[in-house]
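just leaving the lab so this will be short. below you get a single protein, a line of residues and a line of whole numbers that encode the local backbone shape. id like you to explain what the token line says about the fold, in plain words if possible. thanks a lot i owe you, the record is right below:

…
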Amino acid sequence: MHRKFFKSRILWVRTMPEEHLRSDDDIEAILHLAVQQNSSGSEDLRARLLSAADELGLTPEQIEAAEAAYRAEKASQAVQRLTEQEDTQLWKQFRKTQVSDFISGLGTYAAVNTFLVWLNWSNDGRLGWSLWPLGIWGIYVAVQAFNLLASQRTDNLDEFERWKRKYKKKQKKASSSDSDD
């Protein structure tokens, strides 16, 4: 059945205009569609695979090796997808931490400098020395704000990797202390 199917499809593909056949991928896609259209759900997939392999002159050992490589590649892709998802979540957490740290520093800047300005004003009746820490620290806060708002993912990769290592150590420590309880 399958042998006839593939032979008839191959003959049909040979008689089609070749303008759409540019690569092996085109042929593979056409054959894939043809198999999907003709397959019945009850057929054994392994039998179809071996039949197609036989048509192509492949040995069962070659098919086994290709299957093993395919499974390994599929597993690797699954692990990579999980890692990418985990990294995306960790990146969001990293950015939240950065924003939180910046806001905390901004609050400290405002509180300390408000106190210094008040102290300077109440003692001297004018602003003098308190403008120095206000200005210098203000420049530092402005640079931090610019870096936080203007940074892209590629700008912070080293910092992100350091943060991720610390975060994972913290998680590991927390999970080990939970299991000790």
In short: Residues 84-180 form one domain. The chain has a mean pLDDT of 80. Residues 60-124 form the longest helix (65 residues).
